[in-house]
# Entry
Amino acid sequence: MIEILTPDELDRARATGALVGDILHALKARATVGTNLLDIDRWAKQMIEDAGAESCYVDYAPSFGDGPFGHYICTAVNDAVLHGMPHDYTLADGDLLTLDLAVSLRGIAADAAISFIVGATRDPEDERLIETTERALAAGIAAARPGARIGDISRAIGTVLKAEGYPINMEFGGHGIGSTMHQDPHVANNGRPGRGYVLRPGLLLALEPWIMADTDELVTDADGWTLRSATGARTAHTEHTVAITETGAEILTLPTR
# Structure
């Protein structure tokens, strides 16, 4: 299903996106050395409920996971990159943490992810991973304009990732979003320009470049959800929900503070 939002729905999407951005901003500030991943999940739950919103994750049970997920946020550490299930782990200095959050507010969902280094110890290669996903996301957003095609976004993202020498996994990528979290069209993190669905004003897309330092192969944890690099290499993942407008792409999941 591909949804085109009405002006009223787009206004609601802006409110949902701002909520997601603000929660991630607050959680990043609280995710310090000594923080347990289960505490982050608990804080996310409280913030979602306080806003009168609903989690898109807690009851989510797709074919690729051993669902329902049962938690309110994805927490991926170091070699984990996607669908990281919160568990009893205490963050250490130098950990590379990804927080991925999707909520629904007044019937419209938004989805975003951030990667950052915990504590004072900063590995330059970890910083390069994060910065590359951020630049790739910016390139994808710049390519998202009415009349362009999904392949134009994919090509823009992939060009940045490949220029830095990172392998690209094509199994998981960005997606449409609206009244539900995961919709068509799929937005791969590499592709051919001029191919795929034509972008129209009112379309919402969650764009999410993610990479592993030296492999494109994933392995799944025993929890049935957490995806890690097959080599144990570090990973990064950056995501925004954007709305296609008459003039380009509007980022909805930026924090307001």
In short: Residues 7-30 form the longest helix (24 residues). The chain has a mean pLDDT of 97. The two ends are 34 Å apart (CA to CA). DSSP finds four helices and 14 strands in the chain.
